[in-house]
Design goal:
The protein has 198 residues and is α+β, with helices and mostly antiparallel strands. It is 46% helix and 12% strand.
Length: 198
């Protein structure tokens, strides 16, 4: 079945709004466009056009986690906060450090993380990151005890607005690291709490 360029853009736009999570050109072709004769290049061209269409709007089409999704402009965030009754979760420094070690050194075991951080990690931290779907077990290290190997997920990339792990800021760049974690709030109580929960 044929689809004209306008219909293609409309269907892609509607799909991205409905799903609310990143969709790749391949996923679009294999799902909503499966009954249409359309190349991946035409899908990509329609996505590029949509990015241009939304460039100066309050919502933009961005490429994250290997796919595309709509998200609001970052500068509008403070004005949109009253719309959410639930406050964003806050994470301790220990949790953020653990996540950073996993992101930069993956796949890693709990022992690897403890060696880098210099302190033991509570099971609560690993559970919290797993519950958020930011990390997952990707295998087991072939040593006695076969400890789990942890790595980040597509949800991690999407939450932090990264397309791939290559988009992580360099470790030597403190400002970039702070920018990556700027959307995660750390309270003074939680900062002190790290000493007792580690």
């Amino acid at each position: 079945m044929q689809i004209n360029p306008t219909q293609l853009k409309q269907l892609i736009e509607a799909s991205l709004f409905v799903l609310g999570k990143p969709l790749s050109a391949k996923m679009l072709k294999d799902t909503v466009l499966v009954d249409f004769t359309v190349s991946r290049d035409k899908i990509k061209a329609a996505l590029d056009e949509l990015q241009q269409d939304y460039q100066d709007r309050g919502v933009q089409l961005v490429k994250v986690a290997g796919g595309y999704r709509f998200q609001t402009l970052e500068v509008l965030s403070p004005f949109l906060q009253p719309l959410w009754q639930e406050k964003a979760p806050k994470y301790s420094r220990a949790t953020l450090e653990t996540l950073a070690v996993i992101a930069y050194r993956q796949p890693v075991t709990r022992g690897d993380i403890e060696q880098v951080r210099g302190v033991a990690i509570s099971s609560h931290i690993i559970k919290s990151l797993s519950d958020r779907h930011w990390i997952k077990v990707v295998g087991h290290k072939e040593v006695p005890g076969r400890p789990a190997l942890y790595a980040t997920t597509l949800e991690f990339l999407a939450y932090f607005g990264l397309d791939t792990l290559a988009d992580l800021p360099p470790l030597s760049d403190t400002e970039s690291l702070q920018a990556v974690f700027s959307s995660v709030k750390l309270t003074p109580e939680q900062s002190e709490e790290q000493n007792t929960n580690e």
